[in-house]
Amino acid sequence: MTPPVVIGIAGGSGSGKTTVLNRIIGEFGPDPIAVLDHDAYYRDLSHLSPEKRARFNFDHPDALETELMTEHLDALIEGEAIEKPVYDFTTHTRAEETETVEPRPVIIIEGILVLAESSLEERMDIKIYVDAADDIRLMRRIRRDLQERDRSIEGILRQYERTVRPMHLEFVEPSKREADIIIPRGGHNQVAIQMVMSRIQELLRSVENGTLQA
User: Fold this and answer.
1) Per residue in 29-76, pLDDT tens?
2) pTM above 0.85, yes or no
3) Which domains does the chain possess?
4) CA–CA separation, 144 and 17 (whole Å)
5) How far apart are CA 198 and CA 193, in angstroms?
6) Angstrom distance (rounded) from CA 65 to CA 6
7) Distance (Å, whole) CA 65 – CA 84
8) Alpha carbon distance 151, 153 (integer Å)
9) Is the separation of the CB atoms in 127 and 121 below 8 Å?
10) Helix (H, G, I), strand (E, B) or coil at 91
11) Angle between helices 17-28 and 190-209 (to 10 degrees)
């Protein structure tokens, strides 16, 4: 069986990871790409009160069930379909339904901590870190959480001060040293994006020719 190309996309919250992901999908189309987003693997907090859920540290590695994500990644690499969790960020719980993800020639794993988790990082063929200034990332996070996650400005800023920024400095920023490619200025750096595309094309040709090195 021809092994897939595994791409990791990391970076701080609001850095532009989704923009880079969408640019890759736009270049190659959705058919050859399977996506595993680390956010889907947040632990279910239905056993906690709403007050405790609101105080939960979502930016620490322990908040995510990375073991399950690693199992799913291995299954996709072996050519098996998986059932990816669906997470509800308004209630901080997992939905009963799951999303079927089929194996594809390219697997992209995306999330703030994917380069900080060795079980994921060691399986990647390309490691990308999307970088952006702190103020830009905070503005993007505020906009996203207001529009998509039914949050208040006060709650967003309180979480940023208590957990997002400290965990970024402790876990996310240091993981930059694991990256093969660092994309400065977020997902709108055209030159860096083109370098990523060229590297993916090169790896796909190596896979097709049977010359990809493990």
Assistant:
1) 999 999 999 999 999 999 999 889 988 999 999 999 999 999 999 999
2) yes
3) 5-208 (3.40.50.300)
4) 13
5) 9
6) 19
7) 12
8) 7
9) yes
10) coil
11) 50
